[in-house]
Amino acid sequence: MGANTAENTNLRLKAVLDILAEGVWSETTLNAGEVLAEAIVRVPFNDHEAELLSGGIPRGHKTLTSASAKLVKAGWLVKGRSGWTIPDDGLRATVAFPDVSAFGSALDAGTPVPADVPVPTAPPAKPQAKKAAAPKRAVSKKAAEPKAAAVKVAPAAKKATTRKAPAKTKAAAAVETVPQPGAVAIAGDFNKILGAPEDWAPQYDEAQMEFNPLVQVWTLTAELPAGFYTYKIALNRSWDENYGAFGARDGANHELNHDGGPVTITYSHVTRDIVIG
Fold first, then answer.
1. Whole-angstrom Cα distance, residue 189 to residue 192?
2. For residues 27 and 38, what is the distance between their CA atoms, to the nearest angstrom?
3. Rounded to the nearest 5 degrees, what angle is found at the Cα of 108, between the Cα atoms of 106 and 111?
4. Which of 179, 14, 198 is nearest to 97 (CA)?
5. What's the chain's average pLDDT?
6. % of the chain surpassing 70 pLDDT
7. What's residue 251's pLDDT?
């Protein structure tokens, strides 16, 4: 943790790039909310940053989301409709400015990554330590035969009784441990386009998303003309519980710059955030 909020924010911005770089190397995809959440785990809020602002958003979270614009301006982060990605310059910045002071100064001054800094690759995997071979013990042939027979039979009996049970239990637990709302709506300035009587109205059927119990997400696919749209996720056909950008309750509006045509919005009640596809 840094000495103050400014230093902490720069540490979290650097963590955002590190997390996205790790995602490139491991071929895993995280949405913006998950990236920010992981950055906050790595650099926790101090007491001042943890204070809740109006709408229930921690001060440090709002500071971080606003500061992420500096990464975009520097060319180290791309915010797209399908999530955040890190370009080559962002990957190079993770090694060109290794400490928080140099990283923060480069961001504030608009210092480009030196041309001779190569794009980093995934760090080599650490070799696993080899287990020492167990010392051999001399046994008579007569004593060894019953033991070998016992080993041969026991694993077969164990497999027959335990192979399928764990998978079934795990799947059942996954469904039971993620309680879902009764309804999820996308309420925004395109509800009339979807056929609703008015915009920003989560009570209408036209704004409701469909739930997929197998993957535990809600989706809505719509045909929208080209334009700029804003919206929020509202639960149970009212504004009593709603989520905006980065899954923040009562947070800022989600934004969509759409080129026109079909768009699919997916909502996860685990993260309270969305993915655009």
1. 8
2. 17
3. 35
4. 14
5. 81
6. 78
7. 86
**Cα 53 to Cα 61: distance, rounded to the nearest angstrom:** 10
pLDDT tens-digit profile of 158-177?
444 444 444 444 444 444 45
Q: Annotate the chain with three-state secondary structure.
A: CCCCHHHHHHHHHHHHHHHHHHHHHHCCCCCHHHHHHHHHHHCCCCHHHHCECCCCCEHHHHHHHHHHHHHHHHCCCEEECCEEECCHHHHHHHHHCCCHHHHHHHHHHCCCCCCCCCCCCCCCCCCCCCCCCCCCCCCCHHHHHHHHHHHHHHHHHHHHHHCCHHHHHHHHHHHHCCCCCCCEEEEECCCCCCCCCCCCCCCCHHHECEEECCCCEEEEEEEECCEEEEEEEEECCCCCCEECHHHCECCCCEEEEECCEEEEEEEECCCCEEEEC
